[in-house]
Amino acid sequence: MSKSCDNLKLPWTNILGAQFDSVKDADAWYMNYSRLVGFSVRKNELRRSKSGQTMIRRWVCNLEGYRAEKYLANDNRVREPRPITRTGCKASFRVNYDNSSGKYTVTEFKTEHNHPLTSPNEVHLLRSHRHVSEGDLAQAKALRHVGVKTCQVVDYMGDQVGGSHNLRFKRKDLQNRLDADRRAEIGDTDSVATIAYFTAKSDNDPGLYHEYTLDDQNRLRNLFWTDYMARYDYECFGDVLAFNATYKTNAYHKPLVTLVGTNHHRRTTVFGFGLLGDKTVESYTWLLQTFLSAMGNRKPKSVITDGDKAMSKAIKTVFVGATHRLCCWHLERNAQANIKNEDFTRKFRDLMLTGMSAGEFDLWWFALVDEFKLHEHGWVKQMYAKRHKWAEAFLKGTFFAGTRSTQRCKSIHCYLNHFLQYRLKLYEFVLQIDRALRNIRTTEVQDEFKTKFSTPVLTTHLRSLEKHATNVFPISIFHWIREEIRQEATLIQFEALNCTDTNYYTLTQFGNLDIKWTVVYNKPTNKIDCSCQLMDSAGIPCRHMFHVMKVEQFRNIPDNMNLYLSVHEDTTD
Length: 573
What we know:
- The strands form three sheets. This protein has a seven-stranded mixed beta sheet with strand order 6-7-10-9-8-11-12, with helices on both faces.
- The radius of gyration is 29 Å and the shape is flat.
- Mean pLDDT is 82; it is low at 1-8, 143-188 and 566-573.
- It is 39% helix and 19% strand.
- A hairpin with a 2-residue loop joins strand 14 and strand 15 (512-522).
- The chain has five domains: 19-119; 134-172, no CATH class; 191-326 and 405-440, Nucleotidyltransferase, domain 5, CATH 3.30.420.10; 328-403, no CATH class; 463-570, no CATH class.
- By secondary structure, it is α+β, with helices and mostly antiparallel strands.
- The chain has 21 helices and 16 strands.
- This is Protein FAR1-RELATED SEQUENCE.
- It comes from Citrus sinensis (Sweet orange).
């Protein structure tokens, strides 16, 4: 097979013996080759003559070599060590100066890599290919010439270069300069223009789904939209859904509902958006039913909201069987607003988030009520009646992917603030949200890149299990799991019972002997269950499970605990 590089038209095969006029030409050829193949380049060997003439220049794969052992063995770290990226790759390219011809001859070209190569949509993340092209620079200068600040160019330029995001300016909205003109163009046909935009966009995105309703005066009342990527994300991560409706940055003061979840990197992923005419049960019911239709009628297993009554009624009607959790952040604020006692708020929060049995919860709750003499307080009575919606004692074992609040919705809204001006027209509002969404999705590409091409430094006492975790979990999930491995060192084995097929362990914790956990290990199925139910609630093995793995001499984490592994593989095919 023979391929040629567009700039120098030299073949990739039989390159040995080829000549370049200069080191710069050789560098350009190898850089282009590495970009097309999918790896990053680092300059390595350089030798010059006494006169300053470059005699030898060598380039290597950026993953060449290994990190020095002294950095790996350092036990006195203050910060988290940088992930390991060196794999000892031998790929290289070298040119030698030929005195007789005055040119540089290729004397070494090794193409074998010992690591995965990047896909085309990840190349821009490679260090040697993160740069601004001359064309990008010229366009940026032209924009600045007409008065646009450099920090306002970034998203516009990112769109123009195919979403490569090579430009690293602060994210501002170039289209802000066109606001007045666009408002004049849209005028009274704002809603029509918005629907036309979705219709036209569906030509390029067959998975785009939008639905709307009109009021009695034939004006747009409710609007919902999602796209192919959001629907695919919901298929992978739709077990947990969070949403609220507190965002009104548009000219019509319509509340924006952002429906989000958590992906396999513990990042917020957006499933869809809705603009509602009001916050009634009817509007929320329409939104959730439309959302379900877009997602193939697959209901989430659990839903997290801020406690709006109309929203709660709609969830109960549409998401039958789903567990509805109230946002712990909102409840903590409500506790302080209603009781106005910081000591009560702190104890209420501890009671809300601590895993315990239902009987223990009642004991703690009534003790708290007695302590602050709140037997007749209306809000306190309401909270006890709703305890199954907010207390960890009643929610543990239900999968929430480690999420307890609607803060993911709020973080998305904060990010949208960088794109949305106050009181934007509907058409402009939708355009800006779409642009923001494209930027949000680049984060997942970066997370995938870090997971593929870096390895965390091992730091715990269970090295074999920790090492296996680095191989099968995304990096962000690994950090979460590693903390559980570290905490295993604080556990004390209180009792052990070994049977034919099943071993039972009772564990307690150093400094807190009143709390006990029961862990059951089934030998034939290689399955471990723990009474803390972290695996069921968050999808990761708990410290108590790691203790049993240590006692049973496990070197790998069982496959049935690799929830995030299966999701990771499904989404990176």
